[in-house]
Amino acid sequence: MLKMNFNDLALLLLRVGFGGLMLTHGIPKIDRLANSAGFPDPLGIGSLPTVILAVIGEVIAPVLIIIGLKTKLAAIPSILTMAVAAFIVHASDPIGTKEKALLYLFAFIVIFLAGPGSYSIDGRKGR
Predict the structure, then answer these.
(1) Rounded CA gap, 26 and 104, in Å?
(2) Cα 34 to chain center, whole Å?
(3) How far is residue 96 from each of residues 25, 82, 99, 100, 101, measured CA to CA in Å?
(4) How far apart are CA 48 and CA 35, in angstroms?
(5) Which of 11, 36, 74, 98 is most buried per CB count within 10 Å?
(6) Contact in structure between 12 and 122 (CB atoms under 8 Å)
(7) DSSP for the chain?
(8) 114-to-34, 50, 87, 98 alpha-carbon distances in Å
(9) Tens digit of pLDDT for each residue in 51-89?
């Protein structure tokens, strides 16, 4: 009898779903690398470093998460980016405004804790 591992399928869907949706927020920020003037600077480190960190957390890390390469390590920048968005950028906003950042935050925490599953580059290397 064929036994299917639904946990690995669930992790694949979680990685591809949240990683892919995060790209819709991050890809537009790539253009801001050339002109970071006016980009929010919630940490006080400057607009350009903030844009660079945002691109890492919203583009580079999600691509690695989607393909399942260095997944746990890649989840860290996305977790930090969403924590900043939820608890610093939107700190005084109502829950409805910060809800999207919190959903991404929890998803990337789960990916960090659970790992990529078998349907990933990391999972294939482990075999």
Answers:
(1) 13
(2) 22
(3) 18, 15, 5, 8, 10
(4) 8
(5) 74
(6) no
(7) -----HHHHHHHHHHHHHHHHHHHHHHHHHGGGT--TT---TTSS-HHHHHHHHHIIIIIHHHHHHHTSSHHHHHHHHHHHHHHIIIIITTTS-HHHHHHHHHHHHHHHHHHHH---SSSHHHHHT-
(8) 36, 28, 24, 24
(9) 999 999 999 999 999 999 999 999 999 999 999 999 999
**Domain boundaries along the sequence of the chain:** 6-120
Half-sphere exposure in the Cβ direction for 108 (13 Å, CA):
29
CA dihedral 107, 112, 118, 124 (to 10 degrees): 130
Tell me: the pLDDT tens digits for 9-22? 999 999 999 999 99
Does the pTM surpass 0.85? The reply is: yes
